[in-house]
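Protein entry
_____________
===
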Amino acid sequence: MADRFPVSEVVQVGIESVAGTAVVPTKQFAGLNIELDTELEVDEFGPMGQLTNTIVAPRQEWSTGALSGFPTYTEIVYPLSNLLGAAVITTPSGATDRRLWSWNPSASTPWTPKTWTIRRGVPGATAEEAAYALLSGLNMAFSRTAAPSIGGDLFARRMDYGASLATTGVTVPTNVPMLATEGDVYLDPDGASIGTTKLLRDFNFEFSIGDLFGPLWPLNSAINSFAAHGVQKPTLEAKLTMGNDAAGRALVANMRAGTPVFIRYLSTSGRMIEASDPYKFTVDIAAMCVAAPSRADEDGLLSTLEWTFRVVSDPTWGSWLKVAVENNLSAL
């Protein structure tokens, strides 16, 4: 048997029509990594009078892993669709190649995520496959002193260790990275004005959704892994590292009054989709302060305040999260 080297391993992804029904992969990411490992729960028993156990019984087998990488305008729609479900895809007026992908997830009604089939292996050699791959959360971070990042935990059904990589029909999305130099942060008092007031001394923006989905394990001998996923109350958080100035200290009033603020992160690429229409990525959130500001400094040069927020549903705005991506993809 030929040796298998990690540097030669590739990961392929297929978008499932029905969660858990495996499909042939069609995508290989250039800006995202996917780690995947087998998880096994066993029950052990040893009777009195014996040093060793007599029963080691497998109970649960599934896969767990993580998504990581560098966010791009073209690949970001894949993890967003996996977590938040199908986007509304429209062609803006006057556009030919440009597409607008929009998500406005409900605060109460579960949506249908676009699960993946994942294959990992070496071309022409061994590979593993896991269906029903689903992100349980997603996090993103942007600053000018570190690389932009995207990540999240995922789970999938148990792995098939006898798979092989797809040899045809797999494409790599055009790589258009979100550069740190392209980002802006806006902070406004209501949803109607979101995106109006640009912050001039914000040094970091972080946004995360955690523990949104989990696997369900019914007693059913026909199922060799989990049966489906369930929705649970997630952890929704955002952070801003602002200058210790009038803008940064103004949030003290919101903290003490328990009133929301509305945050926008907008990344506008220097590359054009067509004519003068650039690639864009926008995250809008309604948020409330959940911690007193933590004082620090930016490279020892400037006093800063780090604000931690809980993302909340705002009835006037009618949402808790809105995400929009403008790129040249018309489908996943």
Remarks:
- Residues 292 and 307 are 7 Å apart (CA to CA).
- The mean pLDDT is 95.
